[in-house]
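Retro notes (design track)

What went well: tokenization of the new backbones is finally stable.
What didn't: we kept losing track of which sequence belonged to which structure.
Fix going forward: every design gets posted as structure first, then sequence, in one message. First example under the new rule, 325 residues:
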């Protein structure tokens, strides 16, 4: 009788499926270990309950025993995300000038701890660039109202606002990611997350809609580095629902409304057949020492990285030092 009362008490938290998060299943070993700690029997799990903490679930078994399950949180240094944090203005990093950014930045998009998920499957029907003489700083992907929109990468919600505060974006979510990248999700019918919330790649964050300045149901999707927009198709192959590369080599030239991936991809066919040797800059490094180490010249390193001999070498930055065909 006590177990039944406990179950009824927990019901207001709401049922979910046994898949605790979008595209993530509870590991059976973790489940069994938790049950053993609770003294549970061998009956099977029949459902899960949400708690106020989305990374903590309660699993209910056939015999009405229950167990807590702790889901893994995104491996993010939350303090690193707060630089230039702005929950009032749509576009953050407004004090950062493009001229102050490196000529080339390598952005690690996924690794053993961080995954990728296509925000919504579909082909781009309106591309990045000028559209009817007006800048279109993202891509548009058709959908049906109510379709699930998923987080592209692990991150934190910076903006979760309704149409009344976002103008043409409609209901808008902006996620900040650990590498200076932000992703925008516009024209939503419903927002499911809130400012300051941690999200995991593949997590359901909202539903597609037709809010704001929109001529039909679609997802307006943007990618921005340090607040500066660039073509999302440089990151995602929407036709095949894939990430183009684990690491994005982002050139400063890309942070320009006229720099479209589709127009530059022909020119990059030759480059795609190339590979590079990289050097990660450490304290005390000079261009001369790096050139000597890799049996090359300062001029060749400058040309590969589009820098000058006077460029300040930032510790941690990766330089291309040799090209292989």
């Amino acid at each position: 009788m006590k177990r039944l009362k406990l179950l009824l008490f927990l019901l207001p938290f709401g049922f979910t499926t046994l898949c605790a998060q979008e595209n993530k299943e509870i590991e059976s070993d973790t489940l069994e270990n938790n049950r053993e700690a609770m003294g549970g029997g061998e009956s099977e799990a029949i459902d899960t309950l949400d708690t106020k903490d989305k990374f903590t679930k309660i699993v209910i078994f056939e015999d009405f025993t229950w167990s807590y399950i702790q889901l893994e949180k995104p491996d993010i240094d939350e303090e690193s995300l707060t630089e230039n944090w702005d929950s009032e203005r749509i576009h953050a990093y407004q004090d950062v000038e493009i001229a102050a950014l490196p000529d080339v930045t390598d952005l690690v998009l996924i690794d053993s701890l961080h995954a990728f998920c296509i925000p919504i499957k579909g082909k781009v029907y309106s591309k990045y660039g000028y559209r009817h003489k007006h800048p279109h700083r993202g891509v548009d992907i058709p959908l049906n109202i109510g379709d699930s929109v998923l987080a592209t990468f692990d991150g934190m919600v910076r903006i979760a606002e309704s149409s009344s505060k976002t103008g043409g974006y409609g209901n808008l979510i902006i996620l900040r990611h650990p590498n200076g990248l932000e992703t925008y999700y516009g024209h939503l019918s419903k927002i499911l997350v809130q400012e300051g919330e941690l999200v995991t790649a593949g997590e359901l964050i909202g539903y597609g809609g037709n809010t704001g300045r929109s001529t039909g149901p679609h997802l307006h999707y943007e990618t921005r580095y340090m607040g500066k927009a660039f073509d999302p198709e440089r990151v995602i192959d929407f036709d095949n629902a894939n990430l183009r590369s684990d690491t994005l080599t982002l050139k400063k030239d890309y942070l320009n409304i006229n720099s479209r991936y589709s127009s530059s991809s022909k020119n990059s066919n030759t480059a795609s057949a190339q590979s590079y040797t990289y050097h990660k800059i450490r304290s005390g490094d000079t261009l001369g020492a790096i050139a000597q180490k890799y049996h090359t010249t300062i001029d060749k390193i400058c040309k590969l990285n589009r820098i000058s001999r006077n460029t300040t070498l930032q510790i941690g930055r990766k330089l291309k030092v040799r090209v292989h065909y």
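Added context from the reviewer: Confidence is low (pLDDT under 50) at residues 1-29, 266-273.
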